[in-house]
Amino acid sequence: MSDSWIDWDVVRNAARRATRPGGKASQVEIRQAVAELHACAEQAIDLVAGESHLPVAAHARVWAVDRPSIVDANIDNLRYMFAESGVDEVLGGALGALSAKASGVATGVALAAITGRVLGQFIPFGARPALYLVVPNIMKCEHDLGVDPSQFRLWVCLHEQTHQAQFGRASWLPAYLTDMVSRAAASEIDEQGSLSELWEQLGALVRKANDGKTSMDRFIEKAPPEVAEALQQATAVMSLLEGHADVMMDAVGPTVIPDLANIRAKFTKRRAKGGWSATVTKLMGMDAKMAQYKDGAVFCRAVIDARGIDVLNLAFEGPATLPSIDELRNPDAWIERVAPPLLGDVLGAE
Fold first, then answer.
1. What is the pTM of this model?
2. Which of 85, 93, 95, 271 could bridge to 182 as Cys pair (CB 3.0-4.6 Å)?
């Protein structure tokens, strides 16, 4: 057993056992999909650069992978973030009542549940950034939606390559996000009440899964002030990144994806699917990610409409120009703070 608060070997084993292979495609179909996804990822780089005005300086390694491989990538990513942010040290003492194996099983099962929904993922942490495209998930999604596979695959790659462009422009972002994790973990944790509070919150999420709040909203409401502040900042950043990627993929789309409107409509409907899956989604925290797509996209479109893409790109200049959670919901306030109109612009408008 590891000396850490979590046994990472248990995480990996639990995730592997809980991860379904996904899809029933033939080996020929899979090989064709892998080759096409690599080609789409390469094509998407220049398309995104032209639309976003965020050229990619150095290309990340592209991996077309199966579900177990994306599980492994996320485990390695979590280990890196926890080590860099000091989470291992903090939780190792505060959660002594929890065994490393129990924590590992819970984390592994959670990763497996999320893995079944991920189409692509750009991981900027570590020595070399990497872009992962989850082949069985992409193939299943395009089949379920009944859309053209080639167009859908390029559409997915446009989103993921936008993330590469974002982090290429904002090289400070990985350290900033790691610091958010560190600040959240540095708060005092009640050893005696941690387990009972966890189950209480879990039950509340099940009972109130359709009350209009995301799981992150409720977590922030209950968190200590310093944790809530860090989580709100992280939420604002992730909303910017996801919303911006959604806007760019749709902006580029009409020039290379004839069926874009149909793909977007069907995919949005899939995201909004309710019922039991919505409850599970909320429990896994994926509802917060879906809200990020929507809120961030509204912000980005509003800024572009008001001042253009280059003003929006000021958000990637540094921590000081990031929108706060309040500014994300009030784009005019962000514009006024970061890029107020020049006197000549004001006079020229009169």
1. 0.81
2. 85
